[in-house]
Amino acid sequence: MLDARRLYMLKTVAARGSITAAAQSLALSAGAVSQQLAALRHDVGVDLLRPDGRTVALTEAGRVLLEHADRILAAMEEAECAVAAVRGTVGAGTTLAALPSTVARIVAPALTALGADHPQLAVTCLVTDQAQLRELTLGTVDVVLGQRYHHLPETAPKGVAVSPLLDDPLLVVTAADRSDGRPVALRELATHHLVVPPATTDCGQAILHACQQAGFTPATRYVTADIAAQLALAQAGLATALVPRTAITPATPGIRTAPIEDHPILRLLFAATRHTEAADPTTTAVTAALRTAAQQDRSTRIPPS
């Protein structure tokens, strides 16, 4: 009989690209993972992996087995969720992955509310920009607070359920003495020195796309994905920043914010979970807390400094 743990290791190796990377994510030694994969190879009687440069790749048999493994592992999670739904109580632990720019105004209030409503629930929160939905499909996290910019196609991995939380506009941020806070036409920024995220990021692509729609290519003097650095440069009068509204603490001194009136740049914040027919009370509670925090944040206005 096939061992579900070994099937999960095969899935992880296929996703990570190497036994070493898979072992690190599983908090195991590479030798331990290799032993389990060797046992799985013995169970099925055929090679499942082959060398591919410095990585490994699935053989045809490995690819076929992985397709079945995905269904087997999904069915096991479905069974766990069905039992949890019958029990009807929130569990003892779960893992949330969230963007750094959402922590102060959405994640922290949501976790505070969860602590009050479900004191038995311990939420491990991973703050990261990297590959969140992939981690969700691998089972290393249970809920993802992610983002999608509206100019990008709507895509989600197979087996992932997405729940919209908030449309989060980018605001024009300048030093407090350089703006009156009135709405800004994006083309007005053609003469500004901008601080923007790298063009390889979703936000950087969204800004470039919007500026090009407004008829210009932005004059980029500073490039950083660090929002604290963007705000510091704007506060010093060295650059104009375009920053998501929820990433700006209302009490930040020395800056002024203004909406974009003609080519708004919006990111959709969403909560994502693995799709199951039976709702899991724990991930449902986390998603509900995130949604409530997002709705409360929507009504919060950033006062001029």
Commentary on this structure:
- The chain has 305 residues and is an alpha/beta fold.
- It is built from 9 helices and 11 strands.
- It has helices spanning 4-16, 19-26, 30-44, 60-87, 103-117, 132-138, 202-213, 227-235, 281-298, and strands at 49-52, 55-58, 93-98, 122-127, 143-149, 160-175, 193-196, 219-223, 240-244, 255-258, 266-274.
- Strands 3, 4, 5, 6, 7, 8, 9, 10 and 11 form a 9-stranded mixed beta sheet that branches. It has a two-stranded antiparallel sheet with strand order 1-2.
- The longest helix has 28 residues, at 60-87.
- The mean pLDDT is 89.
Note the main attributes of this structure.
alpha/beta, 9 helices, 305 residues, 9-stranded mixed sheet, 41% helix, two-stranded antiparallel ribbon
Offer a quick outline of the entry.
By secondary structure, the protein is of the alpha/beta class. It has 9 helices and 11 strands. 41% of the residues lie in helices and 23% in strands.
Order of helices and strands: HHHEEHEHEHEEEHEHEEEH
Structural class determined from secondary elements: alpha/beta
pLDDT averaged over residues: 89
Q: Which stretches are low in confidence, meaning pLDDT under 50 for 5 or more residues running?
A: none
Give the number of DSSP strands. 11
Distance between the terminal alpha carbons, to the nearest Å? 66 Å
- Silhouette: globular
